Amino acid sequence: MTDTDQLFATPLKKVTDFSFDEQVADVFPDMISRSVPGYHEILKTIEQLAARYVQANTRIYDLGCSLGAASLAAAHGCRHNNDIVAIDNSQAMLSRCARYVSQFSHAEHIQLFHNDITDITIENASMVIMNFTLQFVDPEKRRDLLCNIYQGLKLGGILVLSEKFNHPDPLGNEVLIELHQEFKRANGYSELEISQKRAALENVMKLDTQEMHRERLAQVGFDSTVVYYQRFNFCSMVAIKS
Ligand code: GEK
């Protein structure tokens, strides 16, 4: 059992920018399950995609791995005992990730690295996962990061990109935001928690539209991008290097 997320439950004098610190890492599984629609379904699909697309003698990368849930899903799905390179720039997350994944026998090929994903080179990959991470990367650096991923993927390899997104039409966007807020209320978050968390994320999480994602993925070379999951303003897509 992990702790229940109550980080925004009491009125804060000043809401500071959200960061992946010790407090967040302690409640992370509860926080992400109650905040991100489809999180567990997407992990199941990552397992399926790993079974289908991961090639022998190549690596899987999990960029922004948090506690390692996507790495574990990929490790469970892949058929070739591939090395899994799991990277996060939060030491609080990585320490807990090491403890968490060590409980699973199929985690022996997961290697953890404390790094900024914009400072690494992707090599010999057949699957790269960014499960709700790109939205936290400086927008100026997103294109270069995707270029690095494309260059480091083998032919036939895939990028799994999950993101919260903005809808281009303001009214449509409002509908999606409202539906997501209802999802959070139904999962026990109060109005205060929802509004304080929104304020904390404002400067930290910069959302693109699905069209922006598609265009940028095409610009860096991906031949085909398909959205395989969407609920409210959350989606997950697969980009294929063919
Ligand atoms: C999961 N993928 O459970 N470099 C490295 N890590 C970063 C960077 C960066 N530049 N920016 C953010 N992170 C996970 C969930 S959470 C999503 C991913 C969320 C890391 C950050 O420290 C955090 O652990 C993760 O990306 C984002 O499948 O909380 O909504």
Which strand order does the major sheet show? 3-2-1-4-5-7-6
Amount of beta strand: 15-25%
Largest sheet: 7 strands, mixed
What global shape is seen? globular
* Radius of gyration, whole Å: 17 Å
Description:
The protein has 242 residues and is α/β, with parallel strands linked by helices. The protein has a domain at 39-166 and 205-240: Rossmann fold (3-Layer(aba) Sandwich). Helices cover 42% and strands 20% of the residues. The chain is built from eight helices and seven strands. It has helices at residues 22-35, 39-53, 69-77, 91-101, 139-152, 170-186, 191-201, 210-220; strands at residues 59-63, 84-88, 110-114, 125-131, 153-164, 224-231, 234-240. Strands 3-2-1-4-5-7-6 form a seven-stranded mixed sheet, sandwiched between helices. The N and C termini lie far apart (42 Å). 37% of the residues are buried.
Summarize the structure.
With 242 residues, the chain is α/β, with parallel strands linked by helices. Strands 3-2-1-4-5-7-6 form a seven-stranded mixed beta sheet, sandwiched between helices.
Topology of helices and strands:
Blueprint: H1 22-35, H2 39-53, E1 59-63, H3 69-77, E2 84-88, H4 91-101, E3 110-114, E4 125-131, H5 139-152, E5 153-164, H6 170-186, H7 191-201, H8 210-220, E6 224-231, E7 234-240
Parallel strand pairs: 1-2, 1-4, 2-3, 4-5
Antiparallel strand pairs: 5-7, 6-7
Helix pairs in contact: 2-3
The protein binds ligand GEK.
Ligand GEK is lined by residues 20, 32, 64-66, 69-70, 87-90, 93, 116-118, 131-133, 136-137.
